[in-house]
Amino acid sequence: MQWETVIGLEVHVQLATKSKLFSGSCTTFGAEPNTQANIFDLALPGTLPVLNADALKMAVRFGLAIGAEIGMRSVFDRKNYFYPDLPKGYQVTQLDFPIVGKGELSIELEDGVEKIIGVTRAHMEEDAGKSLHKDFQGATGIDLNRAGTPLLEIVSEPELRSAKEAVAYLKKLHSIIRYLDISDGNMAQGSMRCDANVSIRPVGESEFGTRAEIKNINSFKFVEKAINHEVQRQQDILEEGGRIVQETRLYDSDLDETRSMRSKEVANDYRYFPEPDLLPVVIDGAYVNAIRETLPELPDAKRARFVEQYKLSDYDAGVLVTSRELAEFYEVVVTKCDDPKLAANWVTVELQGLINKNNWDISQSPIQAGRLGDLIARILDNTISGKIAKTVFEAMLEDASGVDSIIERKGLKQVTDSGEIEALVDEVITNNPEQVEQYRSGKEKVFGFFVGQAMKASKGKANPAQLNDLLKQKLK
Amino acid sequence: MIEKTVAELSTALARGDISSVELTQAYLHRINQYNSHLNTYITICEDTALKQARAADKSRSEGNCNPLLGVPLAHKDIFCTKGITTTCGSRMLHNFVSPYDATVVEKFNAAGVVTLGKTNMDEFAMGSSNETSYFGPVKNPWDSSRVPGGSSGGSAAAVAADLCAMATGTDTGGSIRQPAAFCGVTGFKPSYGRVSRWGMIAFASSLDQAGPICKSAEDAAMMLNVMAGLDEKDSTSADKATVDYTRTLNDSLEGLKIGIPRQHFAEGLSAEVEQKIRDALKVFESLGATIKEIDLPNNHLSVSAYYVIAPAEASANLSRYDGVRYGYRCDGPVDLEDMYKRSRSEGFGEEVKRRIMVGTYALSAGFYDAYYRKAQKIRRLIRNDFLSVFKEVDVILGPTSPHTAFELGAKSDPVAMYLEDIYTIAVNLAGLPGISIPAGIVSGLPIGLHMVGSDFNEAKVLNVAHQFQINTDWHSRKPNLIAMEG
Q1: Which residue in chain A has the smallest CA separation from B335?
Q2: Which of A208, A213, A462, B182 fits B149 for a cystine, CB–CB 3.0-4.6 Å?
């Protein structure tokens, strides 16, 4: 049977506020356990929540970026359950009146076709703390540093049809939140976490199949693997005449498998009700408009502009806008060198390669946009060849000085003096009578040999065009 | 001196008739004399109280003339006090020492009051007789075989017995006003949001409100001057201007329109209590007020709605008491579930557990609409009843409780106990200010007159109460404690 996969994603994004959603505690990652938990985070008796205004702003920013309805009156609710890392015994979240309503974002499929994915809603909620099982023989340690950290839970419609689409959606979301500067989106550190609702159904069927929710997927790569694994598991069950159980499954990246956590059929009753310690959050049009005015150019718009303004290919533009930092880097390079296409090649190939190889953030690159622009400018004004430019690029990694001074000191300046080149050419012709004979008798392929020899003799510095011309002239 | 009102003590201290240290010693002496019998205090802060008194005297000598400077006060043990045990009347918190002060506590400290101790209360403020306290019941100073009312029973009894000059209380369904009525003192619940809830241990967040328990409406005004105001730490505290509540106390009642709810003079009200309330109405008429019968048609639903909403909120508010971070933890838990179950079973008393069960049930899937949602609708109807009445009258008067203080152990049926608050509960559901002031003695026991004002109109309520008190002397009547002296 032919099966169709149906996926909906619930993505938790940690908002990049300085303090927690309802308390003044710091949110920096990686501090000593329980050093970032104040009396409210510890749920001491008598403490009360106060909403972080920045978290609200960031949530609205996201809503506007995906063209969503903004909840002008949103309500926090209590979700009740007992767990040691949930100090209050309830999580404060938003159930019926989220801050962000229906919106959408577009993804690009492998064949280049654009697909619109609906975003059902996004709401603010508190993160829980962490239970630490290592280092505690026969007991559990509780770290409440993360408890109360603001999250934006973004729920997609079940409109994704493959693991690849899910990854594309997730990457787009990642790009948008980074553009908006509302989260660092670091999946390894948990500032972006993904749960996937996965089901399959026979192609042509309109009803959804029973779904499983896969939790704990913490990289783009694992999203794809976990979903594919889950689809295969469900397919095997159904094809053997079995039945899918609605349940929560945990993805284990070491074993590349999902396993059952708990069955939804005996699900918790969370007893949601409106949080009486907080008033409904009422915002007005002026508030929303003020935020709208601060929105940056988003990836889709930037890509279209790059194609239009710099005459780049859609592909190159797409690569450049994956991150706001990369796009901004590129635009600085362009102002320095005035050849958008060449600049795009250098940024996407050489620079991107360097960054990927070293696992750097672009801001960590020793070659910043200004210097790269200068380097490309030297290719364009014939100071160096493209090939020599790669040597200079390598040198720039170790040497923080200006491009010109590196070229100068290393003696890499291109030879454009025709007398000098002529001398080289003469020498090569004199030293290789046999090849000259071959060429002159019609074996034109040998021409490359002369170019190579002459270039070698110039230590790569001869201007290639001049060299070609002179060789052709002298070999006639 | 200890029998005097806060206003009188304030003057005496200002004139130098007495020092705060002398006054504090006098109260501590009286506490030593009577507390073991009345059980009004859970914690007595002898050393810190004397230290605060010395500081107050010194501050006065340096020119501080805050009206409450050096006046001794007791806090209901529901307010977190830094460095002092805060039990909330529960075994669950019998060992809990707060690392911070409630906003109310902070404000009184800043005003220079002396904190004598923490008063007894129904466990987590759940009760109307003070019998649910883990630390034993409080005795009514007027008759020690009777309850003081609850949940702020310790505060009301301590004020009545002159074991403090004034006390704080909290009121979720009548917990300031009913004990004030039973103990013959003045108890005032301000509008919801008027006083910060930060540091006040939550029972039902949308209903809880702190207020003064004291010897006169004038004292209540002086206390409210300290307590009231927006607090950025409490998102539900109201951004409404506060005034000097003593300034309008002497306004004339000429032309005052008083509403009398038919529903509060119906079946269940004791004839003697009704007579005292009707006598009080005559006093108001003599002061130029007019009386008008009004209707609160949904009043009969208030107890039912309250006993869904309050337990629902409480069931979540009390989830934090899990034995993990502070408070009571059972001995030798075998695993997490065992720790939760036994810590909570052993740490909470019967009434608290009953309400957690009721609240949990009311919020459960399949029951939410029938209970919680419906109760919230009724709550809106009840508030609307009040709003429409306040278009026609300035204040609403009636009895605080259908009868005088009952015998300890007399109400073993929880529902009978819940009906204690039949006149007061609607006021919490509507979020309005309400006061109980002494208005007579029936068979040696005080009765309370209940007065409700419109939204954030505390000044009017205090003005009307004060005018009653300067024309009557019920608020000056004292219980006879001689019999208790041992």
Answers
A1: A139
A2: B182
Complex ipTM: 0.96
CATH code of the domain made up of B6-256+476-484: 3.90.1300.10
Strand order in the sheet with B72-76: B41-44, B114-119, B72-76, B166-171, B209-214, B186-189, B434-442, B445-453, B395-399, B257-261, B290-294
Distance separating alpha carbons of residues B456 and B368, to the nearest angstrom: 31
A401 contacts A367 by C-beta, under 8 angstroms: no
pTM of the model: 0.91
Write out pLDDT tens, residues A318-360: 999 988 999 999 999 999 888 999 999 999 999 999 999 998 8
CB atoms under 10 Å from CB of B383, counted, come to 17
Distance CA B281, CA A263 (A): 65
- Listed in sequence order, the residues at least 6 apart from B136 whose beta carbon sits closer than 8 Å to its beta carbon are B39, B120
Q: Which is nearest to B202 in space by CA: B304, B310, B118?
A: B310
pLDDT of residue A266: 55
Q: Does B23 touch chain A (CB under 8 A)?
A: no
Residue B72: partners with Cβ closer than 8 Å, 6 or more residues away: B20, B23, B24, B27, B49, B53, B113, B114, B115, B116, B164, B165
**Is the Cβ–Cβ distance between B101 and B129 less than 8 Å?**
no
What gap in Å lies between CA A283 and CA A63, rounded to an integer? 14
Which residues on chain A place their C-beta less than 8 Å from a C-beta of chain B?
39, 42-51, 78, 80, 82, 84, 87-90, 140, 142, 269, 271-273, 276-279
Closest approach of chain A CAs to the CA of B15, in angstroms?
38
**CATH class (in words) of the domain with range A418-475:** mainly alpha
**Which residues have CB under 8 Å from A401's CB, separation 6+?**
none
Q: How far apart are CA B465 and CA B144, in angstroms?
A: 28
A199 and A234 Cβ atoms separated by less than 8 Å: yes
pLDDT number for residue B483: 63
Is the Cβ–Cβ distance between B163 and B69 less than 8 Å? no
Q: What is the pLDDT of residue B395?
A: 98
Residue A268 has pLDDT above 80, yes or no: no
Per the listing, tokens 């710099």 go with: A310
B98 is catalytic: no
Decide: A173 and A193 in contact? Cβ < 8 Å.
Answer: no
Cβ-proximal residues to A74 (8 Å cutoff; 6+ apart), any chain: A94, A97, A98, A99, A123, A124, A280, A281
Element (H, E) at B394: none
Mean pLDDT along residues B306-318: 98
Q: What is the dihedral of CA A227, A232, A233, A239, to 10 degrees?
A: 140
The catalytic position among B10, B20, B76, B152 is B76
Chain A within 8 Å of B324 (Cβ-Cβ)?
yes
Convert the pLDDT of each residue in A7-17 to its tens digit. Answer: 999 999 999 99
Task: Enumerate the residues of chain B whose CB falls inside 8 A of the CB of residue A42.
Answer: 325-326
Alpha carbon distance B17, A353 (integer Å)? 87
Distance in angstroms (rounded) separating the CA atoms of residues B40 and B375: 35
B374 catalytic per annotation: no
pLDDT above 60: residue B486: no
Dist. CA B321–CA B341, nearest whole Å: 11
Structure tokens at A158: 């079940």
Give the whole-angstrom CA distance, residue A269 versus residue B160.
47
Quote the pLDDT of residue B447.
97
Distance between CA atoms of residues A86 and B397, nearest Å: 46
Least confident of A125-139, B220-234, B468-482: A125-139
Q: Where are the domains of chain B?
A: 6-256+476-484, 300-377
Residue located via tokens 């403090």: B164
Name the residue ranges covered by the structural domains of chain A.
Answer: 3-290, 299-409, 418-475
